[in-house]
Design goal:
The chain is α/β, with parallel strands linked by helices. It has two domains: 408 residues, Amidase signature (AS) enzymes (Alpha-Beta Complex), CATH 3.90.1300; 61 residues, no CATH class. The protein has 15 helices and 15 strands. Helix 9 packs across helix 12. The protein starts with 9 loop residues before the first helix and ends in a 14-residue tail after the last helix.
Amino acid sequence: MSAANGWPSLLAARAAFAGGECLPSALLAACRARCERANPQLNALVALDWAAAASAAQAADRCYGEGGAADWPLLGIPFSVKDSFATAGLPTTAGHPPLRDYRPSADASVVARLRAAGGILVGKSNLAELAGDPQCWNPLFGPTRNPWGAGLTPGGSSGGSAVAVAMGFSLLDLGSDIGGSIRIPAAYCGVAGFKASENRIPRSGHIPQLPGQPRTVRHLLSFGALARSCADLALALPLLCGPDGLDSEVPPLPWRAVPPPVQPLRLAYWREWPGLPLCPRTRQGLAQAVARLRAQGQRVEEVAPPWPLAEAWRLWGEIAGSEIGAGAPAGERGLMRLLATVLPRRGGPLAAFVRGFGARHVDYARALAVREEMIAAFEAQLAGFDALLCPVAALAPYPAFRAARWRPPPKFVLGGERVGWAEAAVGCCLPFSLTGSPALSLPAAVVEGLPVGLQLVGRRWQDEALLAVGRAVESLLWPAGLPYPPLAGAG
C-alpha cells in the first residue's frame, strides 16, 4: 500500500484493506502521525477528534475481518471536512467569531453521506472567514500555509482542505466553491479538486447562510471534493450527488456510470484570455501540459471565449453581490451602496460585487437573464469537444497577505501589465461559477518548484463525463501519480 511519500491514495487504501495488507486503524495512525508532525506548522486542520476516529477505525478493522465491508464504499477511509459544513460533535465555525461555540446537532447532508459510506471523520479544515476569500485566513484560527513554500498562500477559501489532502492528514476533503474556492487551493497545493455542476450536490448544512437565517445565495455556489487523484474523486462524488429531501433545488439526477472517453481527446483551449495576462509560471506550466498532450496524439484546439471576460466578471459580481447582500445587515448594505457610487463601472469583479450589494430588483433580474444567454453560448462552444482546458488562476502561488475589508487590495504585474488581485487570483474561475458548469482542477506542471494548475470544464450536468476526461488527462500528464509537496518528506 505504501506510496513514494509514505501514504496511499484512497483507491489504493481501499484495495489494501480488502486484500488484508493493511487495517484502517494502521492507516489512521499514519495520518495522525503526519498531522501531528506537520499541522502545527501548516495549520490545515483546526478541530480534531482522534479518539472518535480511532474508535471508528477499530470498528472498520472488525468489519473487514468479518468480511462485511462490501456495502461500505469508503469503509475505513480517513476524511476531513471544510469548516463551513455542519458536523455533529465537532465545532462548525466557518472561521467566523460569532460561531466560535457553535456545535450543530446534525451533520450536513454531504458529511452524513460520507459517514454512512464508512468514512472516518478526523477533523475540520481551515478556511477563509465565511468562505469569502481566495486565500485562507480567519480571525479564529489564523492562516493556513502552503506546503510547497514558506510564506505562500495555499489559496482559498478551501485552503485547509487542499493542504490536508496534499500532506496526507486525510485522503479526502469536502469543499465549496462560489468563485474558485475548490479549484484554486487544489491548483496551489498540487492536488485534484472537483466543483460539481450548480445544484448537483445538496447544500443543506453549509455556511453561509448563517444558522437560523434565511438562505439568500441561490446561484453560483457549488460543492465538491478534493483528493490525491481523479480516481479517488470518482469514489467519492457518486456518494455526494443527488437529492437529500431538504435542498429542493437538487434534481433527481444520481451519478451515472460512463465509459472512458474516446481517444484522441478533443479539448478546446483558452490559452490566454484578452484582458487577463498570465504570470510566467502559469504560462509556462500550461504550455508544457498542452505540448505533452499534443505529443501523445491528443487534439488541443485553441479557441476564443464566446463572450468578453469582463462581462462574465461583471455578471458574477452583480449576482453574487445581490444575493449575499440580501442577507447582510442594513447598515452594511448602505455603506456598500455609498462605496458603489465612487467605483468605476469597469472596476472588475470586486467593484461589480459592491454594486450588486445595492442593486435594484430589476438589475438583478437582468443579470440573471444575461447569465442564461452566456450559459447557452458556452454550452454551444463545447459542442464537439470533450472539455475546455484553461488556467485555474492567472497567478501562481503568491506570498500570503492579510486582506482588509475597506482597503484596496494589491495589484500584481503580469505580462507587463498591472492586474488587480481579484482578477489575478479568481478571474479564470469566476466565468464557470457564473455558468454553473462542472470544473476540475489538476496540476499542469511543477514550474520552478511550484505547482501550476490547469482547469478542465465540461457541460452542465455532465459531471461524470468531465471526470472521465480528467482521469484520461491525469494519466497522460502524471502516469506515476500527482506530485507531492516537498514538505511532505519521505515518511
